[in-house]
Write a structure and sequence with these properties.
Layout: E1 7-10, H1 11-18, H2 22-30, E2 41-43, E3 46-51, H3 53-71, H4 74-82
Antiparallel strand pairs: 1-3, 2-3
Amino acid sequence: MHHQPLEIIDLATFAERMQVAETTIHKWIRIGRLKPGRHFIQIDRVIRFSWGPELINRLHEDCLESQQADKNDPAQEENNKRHPVRNGQGAINLTY
């Protein structure tokens, strides 16, 4: 069995690989979507990610848990009606 080597990357590289802006990563950290010790390490102002299969699996698991929680939250259902992109309906509102 071949193990992929662990790669330590900075926030800018993580954002690039996730195909989002660095400000989005900062927001995810601020709101608790990305957690220290689980998704990244932080010493003072230095944030690093251990890029590899384990991190991808944790992000995927947390995403699925978040989606399950949203399905059980009536307020989220109303929010999805107002945000069709989040509801998988696309960015163009054709209902007007």
